[in-house]
């Protein structure tokens, strides 16, 4: 904590700036009055510095008074601790009683005793911390007095020169800032103490709950031990019973297994006989198969040689066939050429024969047409003669007949079946009628 006249610490620049802004100029009367007061104060401080006190006598008196106070507080604290232990012990008993009123009274009194014990411990610690050391206290007082004298001297110089009290104002503002910081520190310490107190209460409650749980667990452990003992007895009885039961069942199983073993041995004998028979049969079959294999090997060699011989013969025959095939191809080509020539000649002959047949048929047809035309002409001519006779024509003279013969003629083209035949007949025209 900074004293009123403590100038050993460096004043912050912010405080110096604020002091400069707040410091006002003093009037001559105010400056004279303050100067006189401060001057008188410096003279009294100088007088106090001259006065000396024996440090041993002061230390003895202070130690005696403080020792009596500390002894009294320690005795009171021991009583509170004893009472606290009694209440805690009673609380464990009261928890198991049906009446909870006494338990609540016990808890209230326990809280009061704990608070008193806490305050007593705090006061004892404070007294122990404040136990004076005379030499150090005297040095501290002397240093604070010197600092105050320096501050007041500086103020006197400031008043004489500038007419202001800036050093004093700076010291006061620094003291206020230090006190405010101290108050904040104390407030934080109080909060921390309260949190620690709450944590201690929580810890105590947790311890109590833990003790309760441990007691319950111990009771449960006793119950479990009883159960374990009962189970061990039951297990021993069951084990003896099971041992006898298992012995009987094992004996029964052993007899059954012995019977099964005898049956299996009989079956094994039969199986062994079957195996011997199978081995003999197998040996016979193996010998037979070896003979077969030897014979088949010989047949294989024989067939291989025959295969080689047949292959050589077939290759020779194939070569001959190839040569024959080549000759046949040449003959085939010649035969094809000859066949083509014969076909060409045959076609020419057939064409000529067809033309000849067509010519003969045409001639026959033309001859038939000529005959038919002659028949038609003759028919016409007879008709003409008949008509002429019927018309009354008698005999004519040869001259008239000649003239008649020399009369006009018409050329008639006889067409049969729409075909124009190259045959022409000259028929005499009758001027009086149709021919």
From TrEMBL:
Pfam families reported for this sequence: IQ (PF00612)
InterPro entries named in the record: IQ_motif_EF-hand-BS, IQCG
Coiled coil feature spans: 182-234, 304-365
Keywords linked to the UniProt accession: Cell projection, Cilium, Coiled coil, Cytoplasm, Cytoskeleton, Flagellum
Annotated compartments: Cytoplasm, Cytoskeleton, Flagellum axoneme
BP GO terms, sorted: cilium organization
GO cellular component: cytoplasm; motile cilium
Superkingdom in the source lineage: Eukaryota
Primary location class: cytoplasm
Family note: Belongs to the DRC9 family.
Protein name as it appears in the record: Dynein regulatory complex protein 9
Organism: Volvox carteri f. nagariensis
């Amino acid at each position: 904590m900074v004293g009123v006249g403590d100038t050993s610490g460096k004043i912050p620049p912010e405080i110096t700036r604020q002091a400069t802004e707040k410091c006002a100029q003093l009037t001559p009367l105010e400056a004279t009055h303050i100067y006189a007061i401060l001057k008188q104060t410096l003279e009294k401080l100088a007088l106090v510095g001259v006065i000396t006190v024996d440090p041993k006598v002061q230390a003895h008196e202070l130690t005696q008074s403080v020792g009596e106070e500390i002894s009294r507080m320690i005795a009171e604290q021991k009583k509170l601790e004893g009472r606290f232990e009694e209440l805690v012990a009673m609380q464990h008993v009261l928890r198991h009683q049906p009446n909870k009123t006494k338990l609540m009274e016990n808890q209230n009194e326990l809280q009061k005793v704990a608070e008193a014990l806490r305050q007593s411990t705090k006061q004892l610690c404070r007294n122990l911390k404040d136990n004076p050391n005379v030499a150090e206290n005297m040095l501290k007082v002397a240093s604070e007095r010197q600092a105050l004298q320096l501050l007041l001297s500086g103020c006197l110089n400031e008043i004489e020169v500038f007419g202001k009290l800036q050093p004093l104002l700076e010291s006061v503002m620094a003291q206020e800032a230090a006190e405010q910081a101290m108050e904040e520190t104390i407030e934080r310490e109080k909060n921390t103490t309260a949190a620690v107190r709450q944590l201690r209460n929580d810890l105590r409650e947790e311890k109590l709950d833990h003790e309760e749980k441990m007691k319950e667990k111990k009771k449960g452990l006793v119950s479990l031990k009883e159960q374990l003992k009962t189970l061990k007895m039951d297990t021993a009885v069951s084990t003896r019973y099971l041992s006898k039961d298992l012995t009987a069942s094992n004996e029964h199983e052993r007899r059954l297994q012995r019977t099964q073993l005898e049956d299996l041995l009989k079956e094994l004998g039969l199986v062994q006989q079957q195996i011997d028979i199978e081995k003999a049969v197998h040996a016979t079959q193996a010998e037979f198969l070896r003979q077969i294999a030897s014979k088949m090997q010989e047949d294989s060699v024989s067939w291989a040689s025959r295969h080689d011989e047949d292959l050589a013969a077939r290759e020779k025959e194939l070569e001959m066939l190839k040569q024959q095939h080549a000759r046949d191809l040449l003959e085939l080509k010649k035969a094809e050429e000859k066949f083509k020539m014969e076909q060409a000649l045959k076609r020419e002959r057939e064409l000529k024969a067809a033309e000849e047949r067509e010519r003969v048929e045409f001639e026959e047809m033309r001859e038939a047409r000529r005959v038919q035309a002659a028949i038609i002409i003759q028919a016409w001519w007879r008709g003409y003669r008949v008509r002429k006779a019927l018309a009354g024509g008698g005999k004519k003279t040869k001259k008239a007949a000649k003239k008649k013969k020399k009369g006009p003629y018409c050329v008639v083209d006889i067409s049969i079946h729409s075909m124009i035949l190259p045959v022409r007949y000259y028929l005499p025209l009758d001027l009086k009628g149709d021919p």
